[in-house]
């Protein structure tokens, strides 16, 4: 390195020297000196290149390709900034849709409420986006910049309304009092209120209802209230990194709701707003038509009054004038009220229908039509009387009276029909039509006893009449036929033909066929019940057989098209065995190191850890379980390995050069979820669904402890062989191995999944989801509940800290010294390392000046090279817990450095065995490294680094392959691939020769 620097410095010096005019003249005067310097620079350059190549050769070859790659911190910064930028785009899209909706809603009547709620909602979005940006800028300062408060302009367009005096006021900035991190709960609650107000104003348009908008906004309201209630418990902690990170993670949940609302609101703008506008225009057009007709009819009435207003002598004349004057009044009222209703419906600032008094609403909507009908009725009555008052002819008076009566009856009938339809709609909420009510009423009337008797009499009379009519027809037809026959016999004038017998013969020939057909068609009705049941069952069995044959034919055709050989054609083919390519390097290989690895890890530590981890190889497969391996753990003294499986057995292996079976612990009832060794490794606990069993290291059952509730986890007290914790829902019980409850601890509304005890035994750390918010609310169906990491003081029985997390928490582990806490998550969320610090307790200073509480700070997130589905829990490993071990379900294993989060070793997915389910590290020894993995097929695979003093007979397969020259995996830094099964007697996949089996009846699962 120094050589290269010196050579570069010499080159720059030479370049500067040659660029100077004075030096250039000297160089031209002495060319030998210039040539000597150039030669010297070439030699220095060659030496520098050789030195750099030597240094690179000493480093792992896989590091070179990732030297310029992003660091772990850089990846987290980029991921966090991308999450916020995505959230910002979602908020901008919603704000844009709200602005478009406000512009489109201005054309609607009674739109002032929806406009006002949309403006308030846009203002709330601006405030929330500012708070989320401030929060993200604190977490990711290199990627996200802060927004000045002066740039917060109120998007409320109503602030730009014109004033009566002076010019238009400038836009006012948002009142930023209280816009600090502590206002998140209040902002969430206000956001929920604004969303509900907007939805209620949207539903005030009866012309159109969008269930998608209602569903999405109601779900968003529930979640906002849930988050606001949960965040209330972190008052005073919103500047802590853990709470800030939780709020930042909520952006993904909020963003999904905002996307749904944005899409549904866009569809509402495209479909709902035009529908509402059309309905309102249709109602306005109806009122306009009524106004036009009423105006025209008032003109007709006023013109007609010219003929009668002077006739005031008799009663008829006075009656005519009274009716016509009334008609004129009603027609004018109909026209005026129609214009009034039209103006009211088109007004933007009118109140919605449910906020108007009922008499006002009825007057505006119903009075124009009622007045027009009354005006027509009065005019018709006056016209009819006018014919008699003016002594018109009898025909004229009669025709006028009859036609007036007919038209009046039609008008009354239609009006009654309209009124009945309205009444039926109000009574049945639109579920029943008027015709259905009329038919039902008619049917009930027909069921009356008197009506039934009358119908019977009528039916009897109809039958008698039909019978008499048929009899008369038969008698008359018979008489006519006899007369014709007698006439033919009497007069043989026409020759007869022989077509009759031929037709008869033909009919006899066809008669058997017809009889067979008739017999076939009438057979089901003539058979008795058992025969019909047998024929029915036989037909079903035949149909089933045909269906099975068709399915087999389709399967055979598909297999033939795919080039596969059917199973029935290869009954004697040998079973397929896994083949291993000796030249393949796709088995296990460590991944390349990120640049943070060698930049932060001390050189000596890397030089010792990396080569040692590269030699990890599976040395033995323990195939005793017949089902999935649920959990496994090494004893603290390193002598035993305990496993639990879904085959209802737990096995204790003796650790050594070749693992042997110490005991098989068979549980008759209940699945085994966990095994836990005591501090000295002499007592083993196995966790059942509703109980705990106590065993010795030799596999002897000491006691079965039954519990009234489901047990989710067990944990020993530090340095104890008699006391342990049992996690049951929201409670943790302290028990002894005799089953006696010594103490209990309640964790409130948190359902604990797992707990861990600090080495000093003073604090209990637990993880689990929140059962309900403080106000009793639950999130919507698509939203994840809040999870928490709890630090509980065992002595004071109080919570010292509560850390919220969004992802599903699986397990928690504490390092030997107690300063580091490893959190494992479900599915594809990588594990995290949290540091537990003791700080002075402000609340306890009055009682004790040195009171301290524990607080968790996130130190690292262990990112794999690709997204991995995590199997089981993550564990500490190595000397002083310097490593973090994690296994993927596909069979890949990741090993990170604890303090730097650098990925030190990566074992690729295996080509043998099932998917991994759990992993455990042997903490008792660091020479060699040792860990075990469990898989779905029940195999327990033991991994270790080869010892330096191994004999040639016990060397690893990698060493044998290297000596044979049959592998090139070293150039990639790969871990070995298991060889094909060796000859009998030298197999590494073995079973223990002696097994101690212990049967125990556990509590019912």
TrEMBL record:
Keyword terms of this UniProt record: Membrane, Repeat, Transmembrane, Transmembrane helix, WD repeat
Statement: the UniProt record of this protein carries the keyword Cell wall biogenesis/degradation: no
GO cellular component labels: GID complex
Region described as Disordered: 1-28, 51-70, 521-543, 962-1005
Cited Gene3D superfamilies: YVTN repeat-like/Quinoprotein amine dehydrogenase
InterPro entries the UniProt entry points to: WD40/YVTN_repeat-like_dom_sf, WD40_rpt, WD_repeat-ST_regulator
Lineage top rank: taxon: Eukaryota
WD repeats: 622-663, 930-953
Transmembrane segments: 287-309, 321-342, 369-388
Polar residues bias locations: 51-61, 965-977, 995-1005
GO biological process: proteasome-mediated ubiquitin-dependent protein catabolic process
PANTHER family associated with the record: WD REPEAT PROTEIN 26-RELATED, WD REPEAT-CONTAINING PROTEIN 26
UniProt name for this protein: WD40 repeat-like protein
UniProt source species: Suillus fuscotomentosus
């Amino acid at each position: 390195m120094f050589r290269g620097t010196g050579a570069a410095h010499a080159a720059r010096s030479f370049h500067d020297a040659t660029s100077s005019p004075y030096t250039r003249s000297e160089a031209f005067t002495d060319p030998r000196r210039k040539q000597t310097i150039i030669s010297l620079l070439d030699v220095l350059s060659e030496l520098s290149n050789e030195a750099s190549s030597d240094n690179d050769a000493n480093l792992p070859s896989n590091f070179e390709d990732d030297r310029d790659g992003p660091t772990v911190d850089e990846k987290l910064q980029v991921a966090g900034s991308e999450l916020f930028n995505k959230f910002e785009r979602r908020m901008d899209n919603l704000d844009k849709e709200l602005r478009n909706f406000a512009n489109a809603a201005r054309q609607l009547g009674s739109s002032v409420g929806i406009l006002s709620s949309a403006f308030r909602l846009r203002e709330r979005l601006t405030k929330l986006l500012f708070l989320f940006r401030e929060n993200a800028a604190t977490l990711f300062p290199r990627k996200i910049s802060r927004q000045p408060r002066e740039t917060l302009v109120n998007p409320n367009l109503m602030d730009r309304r014109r004033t009566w005096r002076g010019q238009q006021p400038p836009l006012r900035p948002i009142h930023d009092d209280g816009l600090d991190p502590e206002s998140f709960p209040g902002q969430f609650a206000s956001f929920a209120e604004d969303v509900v107000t907007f939805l209620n104003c949207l539903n005030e348009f009866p012309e159109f209802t969008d269930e998608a908008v209602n569903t999405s906004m109601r779900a968003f309201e529930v979640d906002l209230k849930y988050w606001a209630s949960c965040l209330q418990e972190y008052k005073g902690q919103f500047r802590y990194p853990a709470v800030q990170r939780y709020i930042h993670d909520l952006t993904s949940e909020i963003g999904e709701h905002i996307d749904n609302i944005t899409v549904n609101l866009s569809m509402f703008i495209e479909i709902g707003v035009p529908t509402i506008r059309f309905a309102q225009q249709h109602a306005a057009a109806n009122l306009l038509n009524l106004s036009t007709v009423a105006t025209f009819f008032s003109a007709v009435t006023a013109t007609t009054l010219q003929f009668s207003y002077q006739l005031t002598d008799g009663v008829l004349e006075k009656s005519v004038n009274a009716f016509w004057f009334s008609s004129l009044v009603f027609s004018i009222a109909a026209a005026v009220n129609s214009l009034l209703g039209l103006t009211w419906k088109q007004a933007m600032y009118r109140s919605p229908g449910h906020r108007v008094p009922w008499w006002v609403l009825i007057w505006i909507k119903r009075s124009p039509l009622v007045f027009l009908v009354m005006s027509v009725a009065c005019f018709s009555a006056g016209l009819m009387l006018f014919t008699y008052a003016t002594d018109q002819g009898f025909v004229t008076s009669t025709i006028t009276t009859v036609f007036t009566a007919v038209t009046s009856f039609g008008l009354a009938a239609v009006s009654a029909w309209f009124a009945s339809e309205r009444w039926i709609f109000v009574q049945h909420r639109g579920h029943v039509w008027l015709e259905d009510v009329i038919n039902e009423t008619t049917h009930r009337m027909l069921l009356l006893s008197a009506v039934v008797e009358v119908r019977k009499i009528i039916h009897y009379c109809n039958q008698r009449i039909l019978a008499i009519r048929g009899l008369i027809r038969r008698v008359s037809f018979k008489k006519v036929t006899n007369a014709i026959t007698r006439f033919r016999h009497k007069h043989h004038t026409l020759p007869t033909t022989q077509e009759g017998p031929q037709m008869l013969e033909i009919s006899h020939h066809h008669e058997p066929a017809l009889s067979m057909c008739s017999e076939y068609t009438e057979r089901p009705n003539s058979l008795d019940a058992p025969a019909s049941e047998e024929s029915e069952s036989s037909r079903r069995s035949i149909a089933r057989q045909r269906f099975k044959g068709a399915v087999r034919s389709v399967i055979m055709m598909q297999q033939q098209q795919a080039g596969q050989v059917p199973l029935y054609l290869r009954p004697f083919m040998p079973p397929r065995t896994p083949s291993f390519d000796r030249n393949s390097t796709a088995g296990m290989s460590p991944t390349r190191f990120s640049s943070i690895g060698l930049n932060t890890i001390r050189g000596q530590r890397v030089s010792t850890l990396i080569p040692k981890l590269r030699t990890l190889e599976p040395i033995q497969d323990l195939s005793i379980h017949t089902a999935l391996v649920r959990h496994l753990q090494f004893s603290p003294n390193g002598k035993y390995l305990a496993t639990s499986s879904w085959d209802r057995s737990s096995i204790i292996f003796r650790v050594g050069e070749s693992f042997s079976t110490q005991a098989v612990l068979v549980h008759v009832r209940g699945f085994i979820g966990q095994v836990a060794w005591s501090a000295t490794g002499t007592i083993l606990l196995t966790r059942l669904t509703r109980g705990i069993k106590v065993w010795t290291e030799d596999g002897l059952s000491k006691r079965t402890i039954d519990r009234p509730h489901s047990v989710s986890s067990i944990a020993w007290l530090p340095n104890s062989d008699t006391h342990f914790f049992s996690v049951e829902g929201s409670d943790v019980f302290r028990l002894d191995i005799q089953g006696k409850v010594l103490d209990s601890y309640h964790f409130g509304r948190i359902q604990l999944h797992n707990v861990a005890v600090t080495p000093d035994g003073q604090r209990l750390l637990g993880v689990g989801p929140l059962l309900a918010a403080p106000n009793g609310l639950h999130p919507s169906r698509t939203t994840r509940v809040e999870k928490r990491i709890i630090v509980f003081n065992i002595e004071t029985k109080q919570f010292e800290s509560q850390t919220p997390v969004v992802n599903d928490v699986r397990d928690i582990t504490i390092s030997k010294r107690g300063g580091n806490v490893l959190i494992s998550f479900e599915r594809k969320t990588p594990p995290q390392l949290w540091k537990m610090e003791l700080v002075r307790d402000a609340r306890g200073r009055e009682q004790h000046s040195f009171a301290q509480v524990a607080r968790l700070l996130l130190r690292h997130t262990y990112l794999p090279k690709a997204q991995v589905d995590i199997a089981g829990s993550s564990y500490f490993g190595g000397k002083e817990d310097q490593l973090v071990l994690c296994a993927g379900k596909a069979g890949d294993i990741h090993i990170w450095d604890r303090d730097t989060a650098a990925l030190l070793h990566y074992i690729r997915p295996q080509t043998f065995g099932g998917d991994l389910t759990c992993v455990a590290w042997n903490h008792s020894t660091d020479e060699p490294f040792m860990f075990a993995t469990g898989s779905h097929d029940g195999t327990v695979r033991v991994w270790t680094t080869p010892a330096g003093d191994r004999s040639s007979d016990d060397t690893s397969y990698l060493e044998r392959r290297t000596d044979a020259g049959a592998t090139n995996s070293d150039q990639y830094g790969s871990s070995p691939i298991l060889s094909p099964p060796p000859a009998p007697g030298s197999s590494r996949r073995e079973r223990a020769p002696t097994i101690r089996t212990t049967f125990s009846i556990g509590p019912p699962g």
